[in-house]
Amino acid sequence: MARRVFFSFYYKADNWRVSTVKKMGAIEGQPLLSSNKWEEVKGGGDAAIKKWINDEMSGKSCLVVLIGASTAGRKWIDYEIKKAWDDGKGVVGVHIHGLKNSQEQQAAKGANPFAKFKIGDEAMTKYAKSYDTPYTSSKYVYEYISENIAEWVEEAIRLRKAA
């Protein structure tokens, strides 16, 4: 059975790429919201967004940050990283810039969203790894992520337990 995870990502820029990762079926994430539903959640303000995140993250064993060109440093992604860690969940990042979007375009590689966080005196990157593919072709990027993401999630859970 696939692990249940929470996908963290920048909706506006990466929802197509995230949908591609979700369809791989290697791990089970929360249902992805339509743009209309996301706008409805956002319309409720910060409290509604926090409630949605908290509700959707409940019962998940790992946070998977799908890293696009503009993911790092976003308010809600930072909130999700901190919440997942504080809740004892594994935390892992997967660079998705090499997957094509709906316009058949790839993106620039984004920064590591874990780089600014500390766990005590140590960098969070010791416990929250981020993975990039060695490939440039979207087809091979897809295959690489598909073949490895389940193990990356398992490793993140092991690293979290060891922290």
UniProtKB/TrEMBL annotation:
Protein name: Thoeris protein ThsB TIR-like domain-containing protein
Domain named Thoeris protein ThsB TIR-like: residues: 6-100
Coiled coil feature spans: none
Pfam families in alphabetical order: ThsB_TIR (PF08937)
